[in-house]
Amino acid sequence: VKGEAVEEHPNVERTRKALEAYGRRDFEEMGKYLSDDIVWHVGGYHQLSGDYRGRAAVLEYFKEAQARTGGTLTLETDEILANDRHGAVILRAVGERNGKKLDVRMAEGFRFDDRGRWEEYWAMANDQEAIDDFWK
Amino acid sequence: MTSGSSALHPNGQALLAAAAAYNSGDMNGLWNFLSDDIVWHMQGRHRFSGTHRGRDQVLAFMQGIKDFTASTATLEPVDVLASDKNVVVFMRLRAEHKGATLDVLRADCFVMNEQGRATEMFTLVDNQAAEDAFFAF
Predict the structure, then answer these.
(1) Are B53 and B7 contacting, i.e. CB atoms less than 8 angstroms apart?
(2) Is the pTM of this model over 0.80?
(3) What is the ipTM metric for this complex?
């Protein structure tokens, strides 16, 4: 296992820009940070759980999550770590849906392709049941 | 893969040491990595899933995985990202149980305290269905 500085890496800045694009709901821009054949693992046992394969499917998932929350689903970044191969974002996810409120801490992990785009992605949450209930 | 870069944050080194300790059955080595009040969120729907609270509970379920797999369960870190606050590790979990084989790639996030010990852990595997089936009740 290699180790290197992970708080100042160029992939940190790329990831920050991707998250900013998501924050603006600019999914066209966000798509530039995703590999063509990205695999996106959404954990849990709710309606949006499962694997999304390919950029188009992932962007459609983003839009669906926003649509179901009336655009309230927001990611508040706490820390971004990255090296040449992998990145991680520790964040708080908040949103509202049908009178229910979501407020969980999450870690998102991803592998970069050789162009610094996300190629595989894992979402980890501190309270999966809350997420399952939120999307139910 | 080989380790040894001095640039890896001490919290990342601690995680690698904990994984190596687990692989060798050294639960004391794992003990050192955990805070007293560790909260460990284990994803999935299986015999080891759920929230494990406190060092004793965590060590018990980790030992439980060893027992369930006749000590074949091993963690193979692929990459580590670490800071003062967090350690994110990507690692393979391999295990066998009664002829069945589990081989999944995990992403685990450990929230670290000022003593360099993990206070919270959350995780996701790349194939939850496979893990659920392997560790089925």
Answers:
(1) no
(2) yes
(3) 0.91
